[in-house]
């Protein structure tokens, strides 16, 4: 196998299910590649650069083959599809969202995806300034949602998953906090696909309809 940043990132991602992000070390990645740890430093200088390379791999996988909206496809549905692609890519790996959060992804695929997003919004009638605000909003929502979604697996807890609906429902005093008890029980038993889509739709309603004016360009 050719040793480069991409192969190192893929090996690191392959280790996540077993060790999680906190347990990932350059030494473990080197062992998975059957090389000595110093060999990695020719390609990634430290764990920070390793995380950036891993994030790039997750993002590129998410947007592979993405194109401009099909005829008749709304800008809202196109953005939902984009965010859903990213969510599914992060969910392939334990702590996949933590990998992407706060990392620096500099790649032609990233810039093309942002350009497609801006073009889609401007074609829908958004002014440039309005369009430029949308991509970060959706990115932050998607990464944040998946961080919470993956935390709910309870993988970090040795004594069982505290996020299970029965457990968390029992933790809230339903006599003192009946509304809260109902909310948490329903929330943690809900279908995450439906909750993610609902949240996206709420955000898109908040973004609203295009209000293209010269003052917003």
- Using only CA atoms, what is the Rg? 20 Å
Strand content: under 5%
Task: Summarize the main sheet.
Answer: none
The H-and-E topology, N to C, reads as: HHHHHHHHHHH
**Secondary-structure class:** mainly alpha
Query: Which ranges are low-confidence, i.e. pLDDT below 50, for 5 or more consecutive residues?
Result: 212-217
Shape designation? flat
Mean pLDDT: 90
Number of helices: 11
| CATH class identity of the domain at 67-216 | Mainly Alpha
CATH architecture descriptor of the domain at 67-216 = Orthogonal Bundle
- In which range does the helix fraction lie? 55-70%
Q: Can you characterise this structure?
A:
With about 220 residues, this protein is mainly α. It has a domain at about 65-215: Orthogonal Bundle (Tetracycline Repressor, domain 2). The chain has eleven helices and no strands. Helix 1 packs across helix 4 and helix 8 (about 130-150) packs antiparallel against helix 11. The protein is flat. Mean pLDDT is about 90; it is low at about 210-215.
Describe the structure concisely:
This protein is 66% helix and 0% strand.
Present the secondary structure layout.
Blueprint: H1 5-23, H2 26-32, H3 37-40, H4 47-63, H5 75-91, H6 96-100, H7 108-123, H8 128-151, H9 165-171, H10 178-189, H11 192-207
Helix pairs in contact: 1-2, 1-4, 4-5, 5-8, 5-11, 7-8, 8-11, 9-10
Key terms for this structure?
disordered C terminus; mainly alpha; flat; Tetracycline Repressor, domain 2; 217 residues
